């Protein structure tokens, strides 16, 4: 690779800064979009977007949607969908709030209760999806009604307040400790840990590549990558640590961060993760390879509801009360995040990090438009268009035989112009595309 | 033959994809009323050439000329080539299963009267067309309720309705049994008599030898030669030599079998159809496999070969009724696929794309997918081991790919099949059940796969080989079971077997199973 002197070699190395490999090109494109949107709003809002107060607010306001996106991407990779997450969140929220108010349940136990409620709901929905074979769309559409109604039955359609200790998970910040530095020391420490971790991860990746006998990217690529990433981390750390006194990096952001790391590992590095992709990619082939697809589907649905209940509790903690309208249309935000993040509607494709980036695109967009004073009605229209265009560009690019957005961006760097390929599958006599032969061999 | 006028000529066709030259100066001349076969290994460029001809790749995306009935044609899509009288029938059929035969024939081309579909005319025409292709089914029958062979005929009827002059058939008999294939070939010959030319792509060289008038051989995107079947005295070996650029002295690698003791046995196996309870798909079947032995299973399509294999492999097909499996003298239970794999069974499916591979996955992940526990510490998969193992199989099985990180959908059929074989070899099985392991694979790759199968047997593993190609069974197997209507009808040692005796046992229920 390093000996590659062709003009494309340099470009490929450059791509490796963002994780190289053909499988990551989609995320590369969406990451670019995120950066572009941040820069755009930073400019439009005269620097308000990347201010301490706004960033802290952004994290605590969207962490629960991003938590949902983590569960949702696994559901979508497995080839399903979950429409019930908003209602499940609301149901878990009201149960937890009521338990603390009526039975004086201590809040740590209440959180466990909330997770258990999520697990039970998930087991119920997973049972219908995996063992009875009802499509998840139907099961969770029913769940959407059932748990929304359940919320209103338990809470009498009223708002139930939650005690102070509980609110930490939604509106708490890293505590102030140590000597006065003008910054939140805990946040600084966290930033430092991440800075070191970035270096170590890259170093380890290079070492593994060497052991595996594949050529790692040139050293300068790694160094540039680490410097860029760490610069972003340091910048963000300073912003988060330098907020109004009493505020710093939100606790909900910590929870989100831990979940992202955990589920990225699960989906990428464990047998279970492989099985989720296998079932979504080709269920029959997976079953003939010894994968217990029912169990995979069951666990994926159950996991989603557990995360939904956690998101619901964080929201309740943030708004200090559980109400009948909690979690309304969250499912749509979570699903949008996953698809903007590069997942395929037909299953088998998607990543946790991609979905988080997709969710951040929506969050920054929402936040930036609000800062600009755009009304909620227009924000919805813009979000809808962004979703459609993001996925549309991706689908179109794929039908053109290019891998994705980034293929589109780098097209001009290729060997001169060749005529655009027609879509490989061409309808002849009005036969629907689905019935046409798939075009594989040439 | 050569007196007939030329109806179609493709001149110096060159077609490039980013980074690959799929066709380079390929020429093809088809005369009116002839059957012209195109032969070549997978990836040689046959399908690309046909896509250029049928307008899938529109005018302007290739260089060279298509001259049809004396005119240079500029097809911009399939519709325009069809309008000119060139119809393509794909390997995977383009029919809507939930619609009737009539509806499918007229799909996109419906006869109308006052703006509404004229079903009376449609049905009348459909009946005439069906008669022409020799199909006597009710035109109201839904496509899903007729077999693949008949579906193929409906496709042809559909093309005839468009007054086709050149019919392109891509692997028309790949999914058909012997009888249906014969019927189809007869039909193509009949059409020839009515002045319709056919261009046929097929891997079945015996069929080509049987029906084709001339053969164009393509290799690596180049026209190698065009042969006149009668004048040049073409036979299979001659075609193979042109396709692979060398003559395969033998189509099967040499092998001296070292056969051990019986280690695997199935007794009185009975399986019901998964939906229709009264239908038995496997009837009281028993078989044995010895160590180092290749056991063939011969049977016509629908005889129950795949059903037998899949039901043994962890009851992955049908409703298990009764029967026993013994391995190394002990009875074992194979209630699901995971148990079957744990007991050292492997099953390579006949349908590579639907059942064998996750086409979204890359090569290295596919290879380890059936036994992840082997490269995992607890629940965590070890990426480095995965890579190393994939690299090992890439080298030893000669999988043609720049990297094991490449997606399996980028591979040719033969290389995909090698990935599937690697996947099952990785599980370290004692018994491999190979269901049509060389279907849709070109001659060169076939030879390599035969070598792999023999190597597995040489390692002392048992192999059950299911194949529709009798020469393949006769060339590889040590012993051949024949299956007819779900029951094993015979067991013939390879030395005494010949196509005629096998065919007899495959088509009649005489019960003469030799006890071991």
Automatic annotation (TrEMBL), chain A:
Compartment list: Cell membrane
Membrane topology: Multi-pass membrane protein
A GO CC term attached to the entry: plasma membrane
Transmembrane parts of this sequence: 28-50, 62-83, 103-121, 128-147, 186-205, 217-241, 247-266, 298-317, 337-365
Record Pfam families: BPD_transp_2
Record flagged with keyword Membrane: yes
Top-level taxon of the source organism: Bacteria
A molecular function GO annotation: transmembrane transporter activity
Region called Disordered, residue ranges: 414-442
Keyword entries, A-Z: Cell inner membrane, Cell membrane, Membrane, Sugar transport, Transmembrane, Transmembrane helix, Transport
UniProt keyword annotation of Membrane present: yes
Predominant location: membrane
Purpose of the protein: Part of the binding-protein-dependent transport system for D-xylose. Probably responsible for the translocation of the substrate across the membrane.
PANTHER family tied to this protein: ABC TRANSPORTER PERMEASE PROTEIN YPHD-RELATED-RELATED, XYLOSE TRANSPORT SYSTEM PERMEASE PROTEIN XYLH
Name of the protein: Xylose transport system permease protein XylH
Species this chain originates from: Cryobacterium mannosilyticum
């Amino acid at each position: 690779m390093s000996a590659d002197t062709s003009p494309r070699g340099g470009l490929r190395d450059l791509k490796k800064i963002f994780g190289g490999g053909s499988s990551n090109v989609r995320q590369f494109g969406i990451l670019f979009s995120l950066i572009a949107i941040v820069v755009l709003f930073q400019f439009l809002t005269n620097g308000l977007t990347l201010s301490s107060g706004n960033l802290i607010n952004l994290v605590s306001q969207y962490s629960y949607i991003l938590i949902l996106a983590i569960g949702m991407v696994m559901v979508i990779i497995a080839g399903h969908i979950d429409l019930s997450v908003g209602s499940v969140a609301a149901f878990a929220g009201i149960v937890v709030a009521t338990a603390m108010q009526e039975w004086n349940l201590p809040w740590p136990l209440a959180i466990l209760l909330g997770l258990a409620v999520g697990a039970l709901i998930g087991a119920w929905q997973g049972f219908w999806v995996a063992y009875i074979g009802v499509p998840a769309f139907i099961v969770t559409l029913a769940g959407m009604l059932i748990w929304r109604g359940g919320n209103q039955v338990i809470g009498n359609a009223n708002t139930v307040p939650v005690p102070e200790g509980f609110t930490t998970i939604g509106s708490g910040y890293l505590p102030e400790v140590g000597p006065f530095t003008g910054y939140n020391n805990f946040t600084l420490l966290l930033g430092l840990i991440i800075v070191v971790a970035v270096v170590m991860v890259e170093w380890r990746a290079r070492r593994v590549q060497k052991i595996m006998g594949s050529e790692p990217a040139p050293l300068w690529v790694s160094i540039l990558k680490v410097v860029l990433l760490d610069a972003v981390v340091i910048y963000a750390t300073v912003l988060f640590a330098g907020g109004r006194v009493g505020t710093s990096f939100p606790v909900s952001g910590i929870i989100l961060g831990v979940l992202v790391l955990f589920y990225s590992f699960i989906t990428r590095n464990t047998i279970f993760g492989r099985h989720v992709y296998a079932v979504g990619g080709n269920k029959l082939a997976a079953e003939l390879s010894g994968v217990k697809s029912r169990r995979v589907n069951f666990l994926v649905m159950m996991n989603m509801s557990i995360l939904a209940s956690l998101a619901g509790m964080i929201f309740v903690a943030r708004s200090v009360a559980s109400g009948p309208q909690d979690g309304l249309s969250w499912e749509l935000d979570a699903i949008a995040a996953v698809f903007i993040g590069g997942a395929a509607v037909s299953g088998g494709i998607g990543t946790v990090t991609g979905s988080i980036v997709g969710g951040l695109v929506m969050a920054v967009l929402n936040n930036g438009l609000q800062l600009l004073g755009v009304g909620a009605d227009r924000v919805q229209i813009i979000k809808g268009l962004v979703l459609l265009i993001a996925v549309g560009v991706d689908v179109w690019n794929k039908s053109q035989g290019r891998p994705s957005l980034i293929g589109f961006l780098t097209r001009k760097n290729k060997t001169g112009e060749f005529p655009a390929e027609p879509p490989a599958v061409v309808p002849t006599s009005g036969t629907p595309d689905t019935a046409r032969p798939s075009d594989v061999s040439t | 033959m050569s007196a007939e006028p030329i109806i179609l000529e493709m001149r110096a066709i060159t077609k490039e994809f980013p980074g690959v030259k799929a066709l380079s100066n390929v020429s093809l001349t088809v005369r009116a009323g002839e059957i012209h076969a195109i032969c070549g290994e997978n990836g040689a460029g046959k399908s690309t050439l046909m896509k250029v001809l049928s307008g899938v790749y529109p005018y302007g995306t290739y260089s060279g000329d298509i001259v049809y009935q004396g005119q240079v044609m500029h097809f911009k899509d399939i519709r325009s080539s069809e309008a000119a009288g060139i119809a393509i029938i794909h390997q995977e059929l383009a029919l809507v299963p939930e619609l009737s035969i009539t509806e499918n024939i007229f799909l996109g081309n419906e006869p109308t009267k006052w703006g509404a579909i004229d079903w009376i005319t449609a049905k009348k025409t459909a009946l005439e067309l069906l008669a022409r292709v020799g199909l006597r089914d009710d035109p109201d029958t839904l496509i899903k309720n007729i077999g693949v062979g008949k579906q193929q005929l409906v496709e042809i009827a559909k093309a005839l309705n468009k007054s086709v002059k050149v019919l392109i058939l891509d692997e028309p008999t790949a999914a058909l049994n012997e009888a249906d294939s014969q019927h189809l070939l007869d039909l193509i010959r009949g059409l020839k008599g009515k002045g319709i030319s056919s261009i046929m792509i097929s891997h079945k060289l015996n069929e080509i030898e049987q029906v084709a008038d001339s053969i164009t051989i393509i290799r690596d995107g180049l026209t190698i030669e065009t042969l006149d079947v009668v004048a040049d005295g073409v036979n299979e070996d001659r075609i193979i030599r042109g396709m692979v650029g060398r003559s395969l002295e033998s189509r099967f690698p040499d092998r001296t079998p070292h056969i051990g003791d019986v280690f695997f046995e199935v007794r009185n196996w009975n399986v019901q159809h998964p939906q229709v309870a009264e239908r038995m798909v496997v009837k009281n079947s028993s078989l044995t496999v010895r160590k180092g032995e290749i056991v063939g299973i011969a049977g016509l399509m629908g005889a129950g070969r795949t059903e037998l294999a899949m039901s043994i492999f962890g009851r992955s097909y049908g409703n298990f009724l009764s029967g026993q499996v013994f391995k190394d003298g002990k009875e074992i239970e194979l209630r699901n696929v995971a148990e079957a794999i744990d007991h050292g069974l492997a099953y390579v499916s006949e349908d590579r794309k639907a059942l064998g591979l996750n086409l979204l996955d890359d090569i290295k992940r596919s290879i380890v997918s059936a036994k992840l526990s082997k490269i995992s510490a607890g629940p965590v998969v070890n990426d480095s081991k995965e890579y190393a193992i994939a690299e090992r199989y890439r080298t030893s099985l000669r999988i043609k790919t720049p990297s094991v990180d490449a997606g399996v959908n980028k591979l040719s059929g033969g290389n995909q099949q090698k990935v599937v074989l690697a996947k099952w070899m990785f599980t370290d099985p004692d018994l491999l059940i190979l269901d049509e392991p060389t279907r849709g694979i070109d001659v060169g790759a076939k030879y390599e796969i035969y070598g792999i199968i023999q190597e597995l047997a040489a390692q002392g593993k048992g192999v059950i080989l299911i194949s529709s190609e009798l020469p393949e069974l006769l060339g590889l197997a040590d012993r051949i079971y024949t299956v007819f209507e779900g029951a094993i009808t015979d067991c013939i040692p390879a030395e005494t077997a010949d196509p005629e005796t096998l065919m007899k046992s495959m088509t009649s229920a005489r019960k003469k199973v030799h006890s071991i």
